[in-house]
Specification:
The structure is a single chain. By secondary structure, this protein is of the alpha+beta class. It folds into three domains: 115 residues, PAS domain (Beta-Lactamase, 2-Layer Sandwich); 76 residues, Orthogonal Bundle (Helix Hairpins), CATH 1.10.287.130; 166 residues, Histidine kinase-like ATPase, C-terminal domain (Heat Shock Protein 90, 2-Layer Sandwich). It contains nine helices and twelve strands. The strands form three sheets. It has a five-stranded antiparallel β-sheet with strand order 2-1-5-4-3, with helices on both faces. A five-stranded mixed β-sheet has the order 7-9-10-12-11. It is extended and about 80 Å long.
Length: 361
């Protein structure tokens, strides 16, 4: 019977008439562990709905049939299909479980097939969250603009001061929506290219020097100095110059926004002889500010789309909540790593680590 189950591409177990496991395939062992045979099924998968389905398939005359799940296709007579959530393989799994009688000629018993839907459900939840976030980010400025337009057509029709003030606000809100759309398009392009590793050789130091030149006037306006170290000579490695410009522009812009007035933004580039995560040599570029820093609980979520530590401040400064997500995907495309370190009250350090050559993977 084990050979029969091994031909099934999903975790599958077979039980006898007493609900004791008599056969499993390799996928089931990977999910539930070894030494499953001869164990009561209830000790393998402790999920009430699945246990009830197994009991009914084994003894359909002894108990009422489980209620069908309206979200799933209607199974053949004598078969139960249900969604179940349980812990296995050290994680929570949302699965579609099908319990069916053993084929005729194989004795009295049942098969239990488990199709893991966790990844698909997580992807669908991410899609729903993304749509909700985009809708919220667009609705807020649109609502404000509609209100100002109605006011300008009504009570403020002949009020020049109110008209100028409202038009200034509408211009800011329109700019915010334009930045959001631009970032969404940029994120979409980056994700579409993420599996294609750049192979063209670029001068990383030259790219960063160009970004520093571009960002220096903004830093001076904010009362900050940009200090660089290790950017003197050329550093050749495979990369996309435009995308890496976007990475360091975003990181330096954030350092200027959140750096303390009168302090400095320090950019340091160093070579790493062997970076274990890259399985070879690489270059590390650190952008450090001397601002307020970020509390530790926020650090793992900073690269999530639309995640903001300080929502009101970020929006007031024109942030869309997508910048670090774009940075993460660009670095992933380059098979690099992003390291974030911060201490509340002692500034933040964002380190981009890029492989020196065409690493595997």
């Amino acid at each position: 019977m084990t050979g029969f189950l091994d031909g099934v591409p999903v975790p599958m177990l077979a039980v006898d008439h007493g609900a004791r496991v008599v056969a499993v395939n390799g996928q089931a062992q990977a999910l539930f562990g070894k030494d499953l045979v001869n164990r009561p099924f209830v000790t393998v998968l402790r999920q009430p709905g699945v246990v009830q389905a197994v009991d009914w398939v084994l003894n359909p005359d002894a108990m009422p049939a489980p209620a069908p799940d309206p979200a799933l296709p209607t199974p053949p007579e004598g078969v139960v299909t249900l969604r179940a959530q349980f812990g296995a393989d050290g994680r929570d799994i949302l699965a579609e479980v099908t319990v069916a009688p053993l084929p005729s000629g194989m004795g009295r018993g049942a098969t239990i097939a488990v199709v893991d839907r966790s990844v698909a459900e997580e992807a669908e939840q991410m899609r729903r969250d993304f749509v909700a976030n985009v809708s919220h980010e667009l609705k807020t400025p649109l609502t404000a603009m509609i209100g100002f337009i109605e006011t300008l057509r009504g009570p403020a029709r002949d009020d020049a001061r109110a008209r100028d003030r409202f038009l200034d606000i509408m211009e800011r809100e329109a700019g915010r929506m334009n930045r959001l759309i631009s970032d969404l398009l940029s994120l979409s392009r980056v994700q579409a290219e993420e599996r294609r590793r750049p192979s063209k050789q670029i001068d990383l130091a030259g790219v960063i020097r160009g970004v520093v030149t571009m960002m220096t006037p903004r830093a001076e306006t904010a009362g900050l100095r940009i200090v660089t170290e290790g950017l003197e000579g050329p550093v050749r490695l495979p990369g996309d110059a435009d995308q890496l410009t976007q990475v360091f522009q975003n990181l330096i812009e954030n350092a200027i926004k959140y750096g303390a007035g009168g302090a400095e933004v320090r950019i340091t580039m160093t070579r790493i002889a062997h970076e274990p995560l890259l399985r070879g040599p690489g270059w590390a570029v650190t952008v450090a500010d001397q601002g307020e820093g970020i509390e530790e609980q926020h650090l793992p979520r900073l690269t999530e789309r639309f995640y903001r530590v300080d929502t009101h401040r970020a929006r007031a400064q024109g942030g869309t909540g997508l910048g670090l997500s774009i940075v993460k995907h660009i670095i992933n495309r380059h098979r690099g790593r992003l390291r974030i370190e911060s201490t509340r009250g002692d500034g933040s350090r964002f380190t981009v680590i890029l492989p020196e050559g065409l690493a595997r993977g």
